[in-house]
Structures are given as structure tokens and as C-alpha cells.
Amino acid sequence: MEQQKRYGHFDDQHREYVITDPQTPWPWINYLGNEDFFSLISNTAGGYSFYKDAKFRRITRYRYNNVPMDNGGRYFYIKDGETVWNPGWKPCKTPLDFYECRHGMSYTRITGRKNGVEASVLFFVPLKKWAEVQKLTLKNESQEVKQLKLFSFEEWCLWNAATDMENFQRNFSTGEVEIEGSTIYHKTEYRERRNHYAFYHVNAEIQGFDTDRETFVGLYNEFANPDAVMEGRPRNSHAHGWSPIASHYIEVTLQPGESKDFVFLLGYIENEQDEKFEAPQVINKKKAHDLIAGLDTTDKVDRAFDMLCAYWDALLNIYKVRTGNDKLDRMVNIWNQYQCMVTFNFSRSASFFESGVGRGMGFRDSNQDLVGFVHQIPPRARQRIIDIASTQFPDGGCYHQYQPLTKRGNNDIGGGFNDDPCWLIFGTVAYIKETGDFSILDEMVPFDNQPGSEVTLFEHLKISMDHVINNLGPHMLPLIGRADWNDCLNLNCFSWDPNESFQTTENVSEGTKAESLMIAGLFVVTGKDYVALCKKIGKTDEAARMQAAVDAMIEAVKKHGWDGEWYLRAYDFYGRKIGSNECDEAKIFIESQGWCTMAEIGAEDGLVAKSLDSCKKYLECEHGMVLNNPAFTKYIYEYGEISSYPEGYKENAGIFCHNNPWVIIGECLAGRGNDAWSHYAKILPSYVEEKYQTLHKVEPYVNCQMVAGKDAFRPGEGKNSWLTGTAAWMWYTVSEFILGIKPDYDGIRIDPCLPETAKTYTVQRKFREAEYEITIHPNGAQKGVKQIILDGQPIDGTVIPYSPGKHVVEATM
Ligand code: BGC
Ligand code: NOJ
Predict the structure, then answer these.
(1) Any residues with CB less than 8 A from the CB of 293 and at least 6 apart, and which?
(2) Is the dihedral of CA 583, 586, 590, 592 positive or negative?
(3) 3-state DSSP call for residue 812?
(4) Which residue CA neighbors atom 7 of ligand 1 most closely?
């Protein structure tokens, strides 16, 4: 194997990934902010900020998919004599004497050194604040006095990121700013319907500023050589329309050895309707002044940073494992949980692969994200469940997406994805098992956000199940609708017109026989959960009704969903098999293997074991399991988008990391620990990090959505990092099925499934008002807990009954 260049390494003690070369194979980013105010930041300080919604409240501008890569960000220019440089290397790209970027838990620290000056910037969003702090420390490490000229730079986006890109004829005339001392205010459209503005402040006296981009940069220059910086002379420009920016100019003198801190603050403010102005056309700055006053010294900022770190300490103390395998421990204890928080916050909206304007929160996506996050901050998960359910329709169907700011369903995409309803059960059950809070089932939740339409959340779960039952096809299997989990299996689309969207087009669906085995498996898994929940809350009739539906589905799968060596994937519009040995291409698909093995359909007849073996035989490769095999080599009118992708990419035989865990869980339920582990390690970032930094291309500390499969031009190349259901599924798989710590209504079930090489390990788990220290002795077994000792006493079975307080548990396999 070719030796791969390394761009960084893990620092587990600080919970950081340390990037040592700014020219990573793709921008390696981080997220700042935990609620409301968010930023994306690359390892060269590129990226942008927004409030709640990356589409409707974009604060700073970013240029996606551009040349050069990663354009737009918070840039500090340091002019030292004739040399101009940036601590994060970009945009000037002046070679640095030292460069380092440390991505940590909701913060990033970028340090550059040039000609005896060190500039280190700590970026973070303080808890509960609507602002990004940028604490810049300049240090003179040389023997001479340094006279530096410092320019800051942010470019305002005119709020709606979509119209900012589309309707600039209007925006070129709307931009407005105010300048007060060391604060630059961005107040575009504030006079009309808007009640919000943003500001960029520094806690030092400034010797100049700029707010007009053209004046500062020069029309035909680049961020790499702005006129004002190159000449070392700000223009004190005042933007009227065109493209407003914010740049402070500060002259800094540093004695040998001396260092100085500057706190820059990018803030967002909303005012009450009747308190908008302090004078005609002058914005009321009171709230901005207050926000600034809380963060205007190094001390205050350091305290805010300590609080952020303490917040993450607490979150990451809820589930902690010690196995002695660093690569496993760092993913479980740090990065996987961190990525789960990020996907919970953003769903699939804002990353370096998603522009933030296209998709809001996904119905199925956010329900799955919940499962990776619910142990961290249950009240936020609770609210999310209510928000999601509020976008459901009275027949149980749902909007596929909704906007985080308005919480309204997204009409552009609409509904009709027939797997969507089931995920509400998946998310809700996870929440109740974690918290024991059954009261959520009694919450009154509207349909399509219409006041007056409220029914209980339990009723929403019921109609979700019914939506599947009411939409069965000729084999009594679920009708697929526009698509199931696989957005690209569009069996009712029938499109020859490249201008039609695969997602929203149903040229023919009347009389369809298109059925999904993925939904069938999902229905059985969530149906069993629903039945158990009904029994738990005393709804025995409903439990019996649904058990019958689940049993019928199991029978339908056994009868019409088995192909001999694996589960079929679907039936097409005409009732022909998809994912069958009879097909020319795509004979086997992963989704139905995952869901039907998780549902354990036909396990007694050996179906599960055969399906899992087929995954190994036909889907597995060096980098994980591909989605289908063989790949489609041509577009199939009856199948839609899936067959539009080149072989080995995306839904056409890419390694969709998201659904590898489904098969891994199937393996765990079947007790095949060696296989479960080897599948898991293949897509575990820390194992990939060690071998393939260049090939993998995207961030090595988080999972990406898709890794090019065995049929691709460059197998192993990753794409679409960060915002993927893979995060939650990796977490669910390792925490509950591999390490075997499974929250349940009455306690914690201990049921690991491990490779036979596993050694004794310990999990610290906070659970409701209890704290467990659980040590597991595998003794070479892959599955099966023989005995559990709770606080010195043996217990029956594998569930530790919940009781508040501290407990010590020993489990022997
Ligand atoms: C992609 C999917 C994605 C969908 C929705 C498709 O083009 O391949 O992965 O979920 O679009 O935006
Ligand atoms: C990405 C989407 O966000 C998710 O909802 C979907 O299931 C997968 N793509 C597979 O198509």
C-alpha cells in the first residue's frame, strides 16, 4: 500500500484533532455554537455564521464550490513591514513558519507564526450567547520591536442566503451599516419588516475601518490582496448598497516578548417592534451594548470558554468507555458523540457539502439524529420530537422536511416518502427509554402546524403505524411512495426529462405496485417497539391490533420478500422484483438486508444468517459494504435517480456509511461478534485516519455520508462529511449493540456483542438520576451475558433495574 501523507493527528487528552498542514485534501471543518447561533469554520478560518436557520438568517457570506476552494470567512490580515500574512494561511497564502489548527468541542484554535510574530485565534460561541468570539493573541517572539498593522474582515450576507445569491440586483441597493466607536453594525432592511441586525466589534480602539467591499478589496482584486491591506491604509468607507463588509484597522506595537489580546465579537440582535430605533433610522443598540459588555475583556472571554469546556465535560461524562483500544475509545468518548450533537443541530442543512439553502430539517433524518443525541440533552430531544410531529398530516403522512426558523413544513419538497412516519416511533421510543418520561405521549401536537388540530403525540404514533398499514401493495408489503430511506429509488417517477426533480416527480403513481422491503423491515422493527410501548402504558387492545399487523408483515416478507439467499429490495411499478438474483444488475441491496435482519424476519428458518452471509459475500469490500451489487451501468427509467449515478458513487453502489450499521446490528442480534466488529472497524473514522488521509480526503475525525465503493474510479474516497445519519447509527450500534449498554423502560439492559478478542472493559453511564459503573468480562465470548452482579448482589436476567444513585455492575459473558 502506498504510504499516505498525513495532515494531522488526534490529541485525545484535549479532545482535539490537530491539523498541521493548512493544505488538507479538502477543507477540514468544525462547528461552533450549540443552540441558536452557529458557525462553520474550516482549518483556514473559512466558513460563515447564522442564527438558527442557515437559509433565512445568514449573517456572513460564503462562496460555495468555488475557485480557490473555501472562499469567505473571518480573516485577520497582519502587515509586518512588507509582509502580509494570515494566521490560518488563507487567504494570502503567505508561507508560514508554523501553522496549526486545533478543532475541539465547539471551538477551533488556529495559530500561525511568521517572522517572529505568533498570532493565535480562539474561535467559539459562548453558551447562550448569540455571538461568535474571536480571541486573537499577538505575540512578539523576536528580539526587535514590532509595529504591526492589523485588519479584521467579515463580509455580511444580506440575511436570506438564497436571495443573497439569486436576487443581487435588489441587494446591491439595500445594504446599510452604522459605525459607532469600534463596532460596525449591519442593519440591511432593518427599517422595514426586519427586527434584527448584526455587529462586529473589537475591544480596542481602532485607527480606521472599512465597510464597503469594493473600496476595501478593490473591484478586481481578491481576498488575497485587498487594496487597503496591501497599502496598509484603511479607507474609512461607509457602505451604501453594494456589498457591505466589516473591517477594523488597528496599529499594534509589541516589545520583544510582549503579547496582546484582542477580543473580536460577531453578534446578532433582535429587537422588540416598539423598541427598534433610538432616533429616526438609527438602530437601538442597547442589546448589542449589553452583549459586548459581557465579553469585552480577556478575563470574561476566558471564563465563557471555561464554561463551554465544562459543558462538554458534562455531556461527554454521560457515556464513557475504557477498553484500552484508543481508536475505539476516542470515537465513542469524543468524536462520535460530538458529531451526533452536530447532526442533531443541523440535520442535513449546513455543511461544506450542503449549502444551507436547500434543505431544512428532514423528518426521517431528525428522528434518527435524535437517537444519537437523546442521552446528551433529553429536553432538547423532547422539543424536537414535538416539532417534527407537528409537521405531520392527519393521515399519518408527513412533510419530508421543515425549516428550523419557522418550523413549518417545506412545500417545495412536500411529502409522500412512505418510510417517514415510522421514524417518529423510532425517535420517540428512544426518548422514553432514555428518560422514563411517558408524559410526552400526552402532549397535544397539531397537524401541519394548524392551531386547533391538536391530538396527543400517542395518536401521532398510532396514525404513523396506520399510514403503513393503509398503504399496502399487492404483496401486502408497504407501498414505497416517492421513495423510502433511499431517496433515489424513485419507482413512481418515470422521468425522461432531465429538468424534472427525481425527488418530487411522480409522473405515474396511480395503480402502482411498487412496494418496499426496507419499509417492511422498518415497520416490523418499529412495530415491535410500538407494541411494547402500548403494553407498557396499558393499551392492550392496541398492542394486540398492531401485533397482528406486525405478524402479517413478517409473513408477507417471508412469502414475497425472500429471494433464496437474501431479502428482495422492492417490487417495481409493475410488480417486478428489484434486488433479486433474477435481475441483471443490482441483484442485492443493503437496506432490506439491514432492516429485515434487525427485524429478525425468518431467523428461525436461517434467513437472517443467509442474508448476513450474502452481505459479506456480495457487498463487503475493503472500505465497507456497498449499497447494491452489481452497480447499475445504465439509467433505468422505472428506477429513477439511483441509476443516474456512475458506478460506485452515492446510492449506486457507493458505501453509504449510514446503512452499514443496520447490517452490523443484524450481526449483533444474531450474535456474530467477529463479523459485527470487522464491518464496524472498516468505517470507523479513527481506523481510516490511520491509513488513508489522502485517499479519504474529507475530515478523518467524523463519518462522511458516502465512501466510493468497489466499482468506483477511486474506491475509498469519502464525500459529504459531517451531516449524515451515519453519526447516530454508529453511536446506536456501538453504544447499545457492540458495547451492549441499552436503555430500556425499566432500566439498562446489558447485552454486548463483541469480537472474541475483546478484553475486559468498563462503561460509565449516567442514566436518569443514576450513575452506573459497568465492567464487562467477555472471556472470549461473542455474545451472551451469563451473570450480572449489581452492587455485590447477583440479579436475574440482563436488565439492571433502575434506581437512583451510584451503582457498580459486573457482567460476565
Ligand atoms: C442524493 C441523496 C439525497 C437526496 C435529497 C439525492 O440526490 O443522492 O443522498 O438524500 O438527493 O436531497
Ligand atoms: C440523504 C438523506 O438525507 C437521507 O434522508 C436519505 O435517507 C439518504 N440520503 C439516502 O438516500
Answers:
(1) none
(2) negative
(3) strand
(4) 488
The atom of ligand 2 lying closest to the CA of 488 is 11
Q: Is the CB of 365 under 6 A from ligand 2?
A: yes
Can you tell me the distance from the alpha carbon of 63 to that of 44, in angstroms, rounded to the nearest whole number?
Answer: 14
Cβ-contact 572, 494 below 8 angstroms: no
Which residue in 487, 529, 563, 751 is the catalytic one?
A: 487
Which atom from ligand 2 is nearest to the alpha carbon of 487?
11
Smallest Cα–Cα separation from 275: which of 264, 285, 265, 284? 284
Q: Is 714 exposed, middle or buried (0-12, 13-18, 19+ CB in 10 A)?
A: exposed
| Partners of residue 134 on adjacent β-strands | 123, 264
Q: What pLDDT is attached to residue 469? A: 98
Ligand 2 neighbour 488 (Cβ under 6 A): yes
- Within 6 A (CB) of ligand 1 lie 487-488, 503, 641, 650-651
What's the CA-to-centroid distance between 724 and ligand 2, angstroms? Answer: 8
Q: Which amino acid type is present at position 574?
A: Y
**29-62 pLDDT tens trace:** 999 999 999 999 999 999 999 999 999 999 999 9
Q: What is the C-alpha radius of gyration for the chain, rounded to an integer number of angstroms?
A: 28
Residue 1 has pLDDT above 60, yes or no: no
- Whether cis (ω within 30° of 0) applies to the bond prior to 630 is yes
Determine which residue's CA is closest to atom 10 belonging to ligand 2.
486
**Dist. CA 476–CA 539, nearest whole Å:** 26
Determine contact, residues 760/777, Cβ cutoff 8 Å. Answer: yes
Decide if 563 is catalytic. Answer: no
Distance of CA 587 to the CA centre of its chain: 31
227 within 8 A of 249, measured Cβ to Cβ: no
Grid coordinates of 345: 443541530
Distance CA 732, CA 440 (A): 22
Do 336 and 731 meet the contact criterion of CB atoms below 8 Å apart? Answer: yes
Distance CA 223, CA 93 (A): 10
Cell of 530: 410500538
- Reported as a single tens digit per residue, the pLDDT across 182-194 is 999 999 999 888 9
Give the ligand 1 atom nearest the CA of 720.
Answer: 9
| Across 528-533, average pLDDT | 98
* Separation CA 736–CA 149 (nearest Å): 55
Antiparallel, parallel or unpaired: β 244-254 and 83-85: unpaired
Ligand 2 contact, 640 CB (< 6 A): no
Task: Quote the ligand 1 centre to 388 CA distance (angstroms).
Answer: 20
Buried b (16+ CB within 10 A) or exposed e, 602-625: bbeeebbbbbbebbeebbbbebbb
Distance 485 CA to ligand 2 centre (A): 6
| Cα–Cα distance for residue pair 551/547, rounded to 1 Å | 6
> Which atom in ligand 2 lies closest to the alpha carbon of residue 365?
5
* Cβ burial, residue 812 (10 Å; 0-12/13-18/19+): middle
DSSP result, 737-794: IIS-EEEETTEEEE--B--TTPPPEEEEEEETTEEEEEEEE-TT-SB---EEEETTEE
pLDDT at 2: 57
